[in-house]
Design brief:
Helices cover 33% and strands 27% of the residues. The protein is of the alpha+beta class. Helix 1 runs antiparallel to helix 2 and helix 2 runs antiparallel to helix 3 (99-106). It has a five-stranded antiparallel β-sheet with strand order 1-2-3-5-4, covered by helices on one side.
């Protein structure tokens, strides 16, 4: 069985906070374990922050969560064609350059899909278990 939930955000400074709250509420309703909820909140927060910072001309940021027997897939879409860049583990990077490293460390897989002239979707997958073991 698969479940999904969607949220549309305006690309403003408070968008990552709204995205974290959406993730917490949605995954709690799906009975996902608390530790995994926190990890997914961090991933979504980083992806939405990147969209706010690097796609400022987007009219909206879309967040989609899809849960199935394999875990949770996160899709964050914006109207920019600029893809996030993976950087090496250089500790001299400014704090703002480490979001993709966090996503890379937490997610089992992640990548970017272009949506033609409509921008891109950055996605990631995180294996999860239900809190009740169902």
């Amino acid at each position: 069985m698969s479940q999904s939930a969607n949220l549309e955000l305006v690309p403003v400074v408070r968008a990552p906070r709204a995205a974290r709250a959406f993730v917490a509420e949605t995954l709690a309703a799906w009975d996902i374990q608390a530790e995994e909820v926190e990890a997914l909140q961090l991933v979504v927060s980083e992806l939405v922050t990147n969209a706010v910072l690097h796609a400022p001309k987007s009219r909206r940021i879309g967040v989609e969560l899809v849960w199935d027997e394999n875990g949770v897939r996160v899709n964050v879409s914006d109207e920019s064609s600029n893809e996030p860049t993976r950087r090496g583990p250089d500790q001299s990077l400014p704090e703002e350059g480490r979001g993709v490293q966090l996503v890379d460390a937490i997610a089992d897989r992640w990548g970017t899909e272009r949506r033609g002239r409509d921008g891109k979707t950055v996605w990631c997958e995180v294996r999860t278990k239900a809190a009740t073991g169902r």
